[in-house]
Design a protein that fits this description.
This protein has helices spanning about 1-25, 80-90, 95-105, 180-215, 225-230, 255-270, 305-320, 340-355, 370-375, 380-400, 405-410, 415-425, 430-440, 450-470; strands at about 30-35, 35-40, 55, 60-65, 110, 115-120, 145-150, 155, 165-170, 240-245, 275-280, 285-290, 325-330, 335, 360-365. The chain is an alpha+beta fold.
Length: about 475
């Protein structure tokens, strides 16, 4: 009888232990974080856990189980998988933001690798393009977490690459940021998935626009077929012009992409029907339609409105990013002749640079005599340069001399041979000897204004053609 009593007692004890474990699994667990109580409840289809590593149950402290130790039964999925699924199902970052705000009790911002904001709690991003971007830390280490004490912001980087992004938590104390690591890691895969999709869509759009602009400016194909295939409002009966923007200092690939994204948003914000692309990894090329007169509805022949928009864009870039940029602007043409406007914009840009200008907006029509000269075909310009500079270039190449460099210094010094010698660190007699050699090779006299003007124009044209890639420097 005692044996049966012991067996029954043992079974009752096991049953009571199982009942206690079951009740513990169903009763809410409480966790203390940021002076706020957050519930961690097991539900039938989802499992929501709070951020801190310590859980409090009935006055006793229990170590929070790791994610790998949590059972995943039928009908239950980990939060990481649920967040990824919400992104894949086209819900964007809404559930990710909701989860992170509940888990941290802080305002959350999600931005891409450039700092472009895609989602934010506590209100809209803002109307101005400048409100859509925030500065990111320069940390390039393998550590995903970066704390910025000046702004009290905690940055979580999902990875270093164009398909990654940042989760930013506001108002985090210096001793608090470690407790947010777990929910941030939980949401990182969903954020990475979202930006992989966004990057693919953006790359496809940029690729399409780049090919469209290349077809218009370089490739000799049927313009009508381009317009049929394009998703942009291009009109064969309308005039367009090309604008080329170049940063004055070299920018990284990330900075170029950042400036490109900001420029596209700036154009949309200002209702400008302009398309743009990154060109040769150093320029930004814009295809701009003409304006119509408000009263007569005829094409506005002037460039005042266009130049005002360009100057405003230049000023906004400097104010937001600190980048100084310069613009070259071509003249208006119908679409089949738009390549001429592109050449003119490049010539205006580089000719102004060669004269020492900085952070400028230069229209092709403001180049003086070069406006008339550069309206000729590029091949004619090459022949003009060859006629006046060919023998100088041949002599420099054969004798390893610097006559072209000497001629450039002479013109830059306003025809002052002594000043040119000082700038080039050579003796005045050496300078004079080289100038006489130039006269001998070209059969021209530098004291005659007409012959001197031809040499000056040929030299500047040669430098512009080399800078724009129309001519290879030998």
């Amino acid at each position: 009888m005692s044996f049966h009593r012991k067996t029954l007692s043992l079974r009752l004890h096991k049953a009571s232990m199982l009942l206690i474990l079951f009740l513990k699994a169903q009763i809410p667990l409480f966790c203390r974080t940021n002076r706020k109580v957050i519930y961690c409840m097991k539900r039938q289809h989802t499992t929501i856990y709070a951020a801190p590593s310590q859980l409090y149950f009935r006055g006793r402290t229990h170590k929070r189980p790791s994610r790998g130790d949590l059972p995943v039964t039928k009908g239950q999925k980990r939060m990481k998988d649920l967040l990824v699924e919400s992104v894949l199902e086209g819900e964007g970052l809404h559930k990710v933001l909701t989860y992170l705000q509940e888990a941290t009790g802080r305002y959350i911002t999600i931005a891409d690798y450039r700092g472009k904001i895609y989602a934010r709690t506590g209100g809209n991003v803002g109307a101005s393009p400048d409100d859509h971007y925030l500065p990111l830390p320069c940390a390039e280490s393998d550590d995903h977490l970066f704390y910025e004490p000046q702004t009290r912001r905690l940055f979580y980087c999902t990875g270093h690459g164009r398909k990654n992004g940042y989760i930013i938590v506001d108002d985090v104390g210096p001793e608090e940021h470690d407790i947010f690591a777990e929910p941030l890691e939980e949401a990182s895969l969903a954020v990475k998935t979202f930006f992989a999709q966004a990057h693919t869509a953006e790359s496809a759009e940029n690729f399409h626009i780049h090919n469209l602009i290349a077809d218009l400016l370089i490739r000799n194909i049927n313009i009508k077929e381009i317009i049929k295939q394009a998703n942009f409002c291009l009109d064969l009966n309308r005039l367009y012009y090309v604008c080329v923007m170049e940063p004055e200092q070299p920018l990284s690939e990330r900075e170029m992409s950042l400036l490109h994204a900001h420029t596209k948003e700036w154009l949309r914000f200002n209702n400008l029907d302009i398309i743009c692309t990154i060109w040769d990894k150093k320029y930004f090329v814009f295809i701009c339609p003409t304006h119509y007169h408000e009263q007569t509805l005829e094409v506005d022949p002037g460039f005042e409105k266009h130049l005002a928009n360009i100057t405003r864009h230049q000023r906004d870039i400097k104010a937001k990013f600190g980048f100084s940029v310069s613009f070259g602007v071509g003249q208006k043409y119908p679409l089949p002749e738009l390549h001429r406007s592109y050449q003119e914009a490049l010539i205006a840009l580089h000719l102004a640079k060669l004269t020492g200008k900085k952070s400028f907006v230069k229209h092709f029509s403001d180049l003086g005599v070069f406006t008339l000269v550069c309206q000729q075909d590029v091949e004619q310009l090459k022949r003009f340069c060859e006629k006046y500079l060919g023998k100088i270039l041949d002599y420099d190449r054969e004798h390893n001399k610097e006559l072209l460099f000497t001629l450039r210094a002479f013109f830059d010094a306003d025809l002052d041979a002594r000043e040119a010698a000082r700038r080039t660190y050579i003796h005045i007699n050496t300078m004079r000897y080289r100038l006489r050699k130039i006269e001998e090779l070209t059969n021209l006299k530098l004291h005659k204004i007409e012959e001197r003007a031809n040499l000056f124009i040929a030299l500047k044209l040669y430098e512009v053609l080399v800078a724009t890639g129309f001519l290879t420097e030998e």
